[in-house]
Amino acid sequence: MKPKPQKNQGKSNKKPARAGQKQKPNFKQKQQKSDSKPNKPEIRNMIRKQKAAAAQAEREKIKAEKEARIKAYKKQRLEKTKIISKRTQRGQPLMKDRMQLLLKQIEEMKGRQ
């Protein structure tokens, strides 16, 4: 007697592919050529880095200008304080230096106009 062949003998349990059905995408990374041009995300990242570098340079420039103005103001204020704080031997303020300071301020105001 011959044994009867079974229905699924030698076949897998997968369903047969239909003609209209799409194939699953292959998510494996393709090897990129090193000499090829950069793709869109790389271009966007490069542009983003360039803009960030430009913004950083602008911030540093503004910060340096601000520090220079503060330094100049502090120097001017120190000179003015030294002139005003001068005293005679008896503790009276020196009017000569105060008058020179007022004259300097008046000349600066005339120069601005």
Automatic annotation (TrEMBL):
- InterPro entries recorded: Fyv7/TAP26 (IPR013730)
**Amino acid composition bias (Basic and acidic residues), ranges on this chain:** 32-45, 57-66
Give the region (Disordered) as residue ranges.
1-66
Where is this chain compositionally biased, Polar residues type? 1-11
Question: What is an example of a Pfam family matching this protein?
Answer: rRNA_processing
Q: What is this protein called?
A: Thyroid transcription factor 1-associated protein 26
Q: Which organism is it from?
A: Drosophila navojoa (Fruit fly)
